[in-house]
Amino acid sequence: MKTPPMLLGATLLFWGWQTHLLAFAAILAIALEGSRWVSARWEFTPTDFNRVWNLCVALFVGAAAYAFTAAEGASAMAGLLQQDSPAARIAALNKIPRAGLLIFQWMPLAFFPIAVAQAFSLREKMEWSTFSWWLRRKRAQGKSAATRDSGLNVTYPYLAATLLAASATKGRTEWFFAGFILLLG
Asked: How deeply is 9 buried, as exposed, middle or buried, from its count of CB atoms within 10 A (0-12, 13-18, 19+)?
């Protein structure tokens, strides 16, 4: 089941507004919502979806590693282990959550390839094995009995990840809650 028209785009714009990444959000929203007006579709094989998902996982892990190092998470961890005073340990611990917030804030960017592949695919759903290496191995061995109707359309999980990313900001106003409730409704 696909999301209603303009919901994913509005959610991406809301995320961009909250994280101050509005230019990126506008590009992502136009690409995803543009799939409703463009008739071009591709027949992605399960192997193609597997590769796109692997790319998303690599982007997420890379973004996590970058966020952890850029937000002084690694030096904070080293400082945590080296410091003897409780005040220095608390100061080191206070640097770590910034990396966690950045990881969550960048989720829509990391998982955009799988969402756009779903949007421009002829298939309504992706096989469950796309998201699990163990299921892929079982499918390759011929032990998996996947039916044509089983699988996942990633538009709603992507919507949820985008809302979670919009929530991972420090400065929320009453407009955040109004927008969040409007998008959930």
From this structure: buried
